[in-house]
Write a sequence for this structure.
């Protein structure tokens, strides 16, 4: 089986330090990754991504289209990807809900694309300008059937750049939709970031070859583009390795659905990223992600100065979920704490494998969780 | 400069609070500092409470919002009252006497007649935010006037550039004159 290729290319901007909002950094990360198509519909708090892509994509030979809604946006992204372009869209919770049918189609047709979700306080239109983190389970379960997209969780403006770039690389490598699970608080935060001279980008394997099957049970097939010369059939119905509909054949369906899972889960070690802080000798450990992990690290550092045995596991990848790491970690802790800007979505995943008492703190008031809240909870557990 | 300086700017929508915070942080980047800049404001374009925060650091900033302000820049009396409790005891408050009547709280107070200066010079209060930034550069342990000037130059729309640079210079002059008369 031929593979996706990795190459070094120059970034979208000259090497140096830049002062960007998180949303601006997403756009530059995408451009550096080689994004050549953006289809979207504006929504707070993601609109600055679209604004910058509208200005910057044409300069770099790309195509930008404002679509009539989010359903059309994801459809345009899927079409652009099959035309051979690295493609993305960005939206917030209400738009993600509308996109779910298309995202499921992208999973089943193995269409690489990047979906940026700048999360705000939901459900429904909720609080448009306020922060939330309530779309984590939707990224995994929002579409019907057993879909398994990848979801990344940035915590800084630098990572809005870095993880957008990685999202494209993972999408191309595994032929899968990749979510960047941003949050309003990071999207509208401005920080200094470093743009390197060169970045590593992955280019999809364009074949020729059967576009929907591999000899291995966990392989990623080549993806020829329309116009490359190969006749292509792309369907959201069950299909064999050449793309022909096989909607009555149990074995074809089983092999396909299982391969779509195995191509991600059997390569989880290649995908999953996380950071550990002060966990070597910790008795109390926090598991956190996104903006909340910054509050958590601040609190942990402060308590460490008092000699308290606390640490932090920071998840950068939410899907596939690092169950094994969490299980091993909680086996060595006296107490595990989670803090989330939702009603406990990731905490539920931790609960599945947690080997110590778990305290869940949720906050759904449209504001970030303060380090002071986290510090207080840790003291409660330690007292 | 200290390891971390936390600065809060607050007033109401339309006073340029968000822009002032952005320019201050951009100037911080010019000085090679780590910066984090965030805002909160109501849905209305004018009149609602508005806050900008800037954290300047010599090392990477872990928590990017202000927990305790070392410097509060108050553009309205309401904002002054709201954010006073979060001040560091040894913190400094820059206030515009056009809008703020400060109390006696033990903090260092610096009166900056930014709105009056803007009105006298330009006939509109619009550039009071930039006058205030000029004054800020004259405080010890903050951003230099040179970096602030560069940030204003790079981030001003062409039609406001000249007025903004003049407003910045006026803010700097206000403080220098005061030092001279002390």
């Amino acid at each position: 089986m031929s593979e996706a290729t990795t190459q070094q290319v120059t970034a979208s901007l000259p090497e140096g330090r830049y002062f960007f909002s998180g949303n601006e950094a997403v756009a530059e990360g995408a451009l550096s990754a080689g994004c050549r198509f953006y289809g979207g519909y504006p929504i707070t708090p993601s609109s600055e991504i679209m604004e910058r892509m509208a200005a910057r994509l044409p300069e770099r030979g790309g195509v930008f289209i404002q679509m009539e809604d989010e359903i059309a946006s994801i459809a345009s992204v899927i079409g652009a990807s099959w035309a051979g372009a690295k493609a993305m869209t960005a939206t917030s919770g209400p738009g993600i809900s509308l996109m779910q049918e298309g995202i499921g189609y992208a999973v089943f047709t193995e269409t690489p694309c990047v979906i940026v979700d700048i999360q705000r306080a939901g459900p429904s239109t909720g609080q448009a300008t306020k922060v939330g983190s309530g779309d984590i389970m939707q990224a995994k379960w929002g579409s019907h059937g057993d879909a398994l997209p990848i979801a990344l969780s940035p915590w800084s403006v630098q990572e809005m750049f870095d993880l957008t770039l990685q999202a494209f690389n993972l999408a191309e490598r595994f032929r899968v939709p990749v979510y960047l699970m941003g949050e309003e608080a990071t999207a509208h935060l401005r920080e200094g970031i470093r743009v390197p001279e060169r970045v590593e980008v992955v280019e999809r394997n364009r074949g020729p070859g059967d576009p929907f099957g591999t000899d291995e049970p966990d392989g990623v097939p080549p993806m020829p583009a329309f116009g490359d010369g190969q006749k292509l059939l792309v369907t959201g119905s069950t299909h064999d390795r050449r793309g022909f509909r096989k909607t009555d054949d149990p074995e074809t369906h089983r092999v396909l659905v299982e391969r779509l899972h195995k191509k991600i889960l059997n390569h989880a070690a290649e995908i999953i990223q996380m950071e550990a802080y002060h966990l070597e000798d910790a008795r109390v450990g926090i598991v956190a992600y996104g903006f909340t992990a910054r509050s958590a690290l601040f609190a942990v550092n402060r308590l460490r100065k008092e000699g308290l045995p606390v640490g932090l596991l920071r998840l950068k990848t939410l899907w596939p979920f690092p169950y094994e790491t969490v299980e091993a970690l909680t086996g060595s802790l006296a107490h595990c704490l989670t803090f989330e800007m939702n009603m406990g979505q990731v905490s539920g995943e931790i609960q599945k494998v947690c080997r110590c008492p778990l305290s869940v703190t949720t906050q759904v008031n449209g504001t970030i969780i303060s380090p002071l809240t986290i510090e207080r909870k840790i003291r409660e557990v330690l007292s | 400069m200290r390891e971390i300086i936390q600065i809060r700017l607050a007033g109401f929508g339309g006073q340029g609070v968000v822009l002032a915070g952005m320019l201050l942080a951009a100037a911080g980047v010019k000085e090679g500092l780590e910066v984090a800049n965030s805002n909160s404001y109501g849905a209305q374009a004018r009149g609602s409470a508005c806050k900008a925060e800037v954290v300047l650091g010599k090392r990477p900033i872990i928590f990017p919002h202000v927990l305790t302000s070392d410097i509060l820049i108050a553009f309205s009396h309401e904002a002054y009252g709201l954010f006073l409790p979060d001040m560091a005891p040894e913190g400094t408050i820059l206030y515009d006497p056009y809008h703020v009547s400060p109390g006696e709280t033990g903090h260092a107070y610096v009166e900056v007649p930014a709105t009056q200066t803007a009105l006298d010079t330009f006939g509109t209060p619009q550039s009071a935010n930039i006058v205030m930034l000029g004054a800020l550069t004259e405080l010890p342990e903050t951003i230099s006037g040179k970096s602030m000037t560069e940030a204003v130059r790079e981030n001003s729309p062409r039609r406001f550039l000249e007025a903004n640079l003049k407003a910045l210079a006026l803010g700097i002059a206000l403080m220098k004159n005061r030092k001279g008369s002390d």
The interface with chain A takes residues 22, 25-26, 28-29, 33-39, 43, 61-65, 67 of chain B (CB under 8 Å). The helical segments of chain B are 17-30, 77-83, 114-122, 128-137, 145-155, 158-181. Residues 11 and 75 of chain B are 4 Å apart (CA to CA).
